[in-house]
Amino acid sequence: MIKVEYVELKQQIKSDVVNEEISRQVEIFFGINAKEALASIEKRNLSGTTKIEKDFYLPHVETNAQEQGILLIHYYDLNNTKQTALVMVVNSRNPDKKLEEIMGILLNSKNINKMKHCNSNEEFRRLIQEGD
């Protein structure tokens, strides 16, 4: 089963601590230690950018945990510009095929734009279901 979550962070976040905040949210929603999540995000970032568009990022958290999923996060930068992070939490040894399908649905340009405007977990889940 794939876990699907949405959260909007109302506060402004400095770019140099965004990954730390994302890691805290991964801990809240997936129970993965924030330090481990941060290390995974930073390791993936060494391979290249996860920026899809100027205000849309795709951080990866690789884990050995069985629970996998996606976490859509909206937050604001210091210019009060809304930013979107679609966090993929994946078991690197045994990636879930359904997670791969969902990511394929979400990462087309039409759905990227829709994700930027999601305002609830229900809207996010509906977007995934409509693409199925």
Describe this protein's structure.
With 132 residues, this protein is an alpha/beta fold. It has helices at residues 18-30, 34-45, 97-106, 109-116, 121-131; strands at 2-12, 51-53, 56-57, 60-63, 68-76, 82-91. Strands 1, 2, 3, 4, 5 and 6 form a 6-stranded mixed beta sheet that branches. Helix 1 (18-30) packs across helix 2 (34-45). The chain is globular. The model has no long low-confidence stretch (mean pLDDT 93).
Q: Topology of this protein?
A:
Elements: E1 2-12, H1 18-30, H2 34-45, E2 51-53, E3 56-57, E4 60-63, E5 68-76, E6 82-91, H3 97-106, H4 109-116, H5 121-131
Parallel strand pairs: 1-5, 3-6, 4-6
Antiparallel strand pairs: 2-3, 5-6
Helix pairs in contact: 1-2
Q: CATH homologous superfamily?
A: Mannitol-specific EII, Chain A
Number of helices: 5
Low-confidence stretches: none
Percent strand: 25-35%
Summarize the structure.
The chain has helices at residues 18-30, 34-45, 97-106, 109-116, 121-131; strands at 2-12, 51-53, 56-57, 60-63, 68-76, 82-91. It has 132 residues and is α/β, with parallel strands linked by helices. The chain has a single domain, classed as Mannitol-specific EII, Chain A.
Give short descriptive properties of this protein.
132 residues, alpha/beta, Mannitol-specific EII, Chain A, six-stranded mixed β-sheet, PTS EIIA type-2 domain-containing protein, PTrfase/Anion_transptr, PTS_EIIA_type-2_dom
